[in-house]
């Protein structure tokens, strides 16, 4: 039986509809030539078993500082009580492990009662001498800007009854001061104060210079009020 042109057109439309996708109902799954990629299902996550495990205290992870009280207890209990390291730890409420206590004692505390080495004694002597030389500067800093080191020395000389050393070697007249100002011609950067004006008088300066260079043993007696001698200081 022969088909008309209209029948051929209808057959072509039917074939096209078989391969077309319907936007409402999704892809045509009945067509074997269309491959649909399905998403893979992810495996279920495994939950960590936290039952029976002790939760860590955040405070335990913090580094505990060594206090002066800890050092005193460790030194006393170790040297005078002859306790073992884990026993010493109990007296500081377990703030540090026995290993930490042992390292602290061996590195920092054991040398407290050791004799001075030659290098340590030389270092101590240098520090004491420098501290003595800078004593007036330290005092002036604490007193305030109006108390210069020179003024502190003058005050102490007056307090010690040595005010006669502060008498000026030369009294500057107004004319001499005016000459200094004229030479500066208003340029204050180039104007320099005469040395006798901002320093101790010569007699006071000589006296303080003699007091400045004192021996190490004299400085020890000055600091502690004892009667140090070379033999006694070298035995430390």
UniProtKB/TrEMBL annotation:
* Taxonomy, superkingdom: Eukaryota
Q: What is this protein called in UniProt?
A: Uncharacterized protein
